[in-house]
Amino acid sequence: MPIQSELLPAKRLSPQEILGQAEQIAGSPVLVAMLDTAPGMVALLNLSRQIVYCNDACAKAGKLARKEDALGMRPGELLHCIHAADKPDGCGTGEACRYCGLAQAMGMGQQGRATSGECRLQRHGDDRTVPAEYAVETRPLPHVGSGWQCYSLRDISSEKRREALERIFFHDILNRASAVQGVSGLLEGEDLSPDERAHFIRMLSVSARAMVDEIRSHRTLLAAENGDLAVEKADCDSLETLADAVAACRMYGFAEDKQVAILPGAQSMLVRTDTTLLSRILINLLKNALEASGAGMTVTATCIRSAPGRIRFSVHNDMVMPDAVRAHVFQRSFTTKGSGRGLGTYSIKLLTETYLGGSAWFESAAGQGTTFHAEFAIG
Question: I need a labelling partner for 190 at 20 to 30 A (CA). Which of 60, 84, 92, 176 fits?
Fold first, then answer.
């Protein structure tokens, strides 16, 4: 069967060949000492991008009992990347690898080129998918062998998380506060008619509610990431909850010149869940769809019984995601909206799968547009 790869060469060496190369490295005590004393994760990769030596930090990141257990692995496999097994030949060969900073850096290292950058990974955790960001560097090692490289990783997840939350929070809250300030200034006008004054008071109320909603949204996400979010279940009507989310989104600026509608076939079902979290998920689904749509476009939403005891909420827009966007949709901090944005889809998956026990996914294809789904147990 021919070896296939979406990006980097797929061929791997046998365990016996890897062991021979590892013994060769072990025979260079100076090199080994440098690797073992490095502060971050450092490993040596052969021409096939397989690990032939790594330090303790690498083994710890891979949750390995011994660093020798990493021999023959590729970096994405060591780090439990969710895409490492997309193709039979592992890390660097799947479609998602085409947009992975780590895979791109390894490819340049194979060509004898030093590089540095960042990569985002989604890792298999103990009970959920865990986002991770790394600063990555690769350095060719021509004196060891052709295509050999030393790669190092530094976990920057915490700083990226803080940076994204701070930028998004200040961006969104400043926008809401500016709207409140602007409408308040208009209300100070002395020549307003009673109808105009009533209109501006309604605008002020909407802006104030939106600002409070943004603060609550960020507080919920912070608690969810810290594992401190309490789930309080109660009965709610699926169609009413969806309709409330649609009504809330119609008040926001990103819905201007766009339509949002609930499909006629949407079903009303009694669902036992955390209504606040479900509403937050639905609002984020609708918000993302509206922000992705152009003026005059319509976003549609529905909820249906997808299987016995299961309900699925779906939100559709007519735009199609490019492959590069599709590969990173649920990753923390990834966005097409500008610096500091990009926690909407990440929070959807986090809240849906970790706290409400459901599943979140999307479909995007030419001629069909993009649909995000969130599915839960009814009871």
Answer: 176
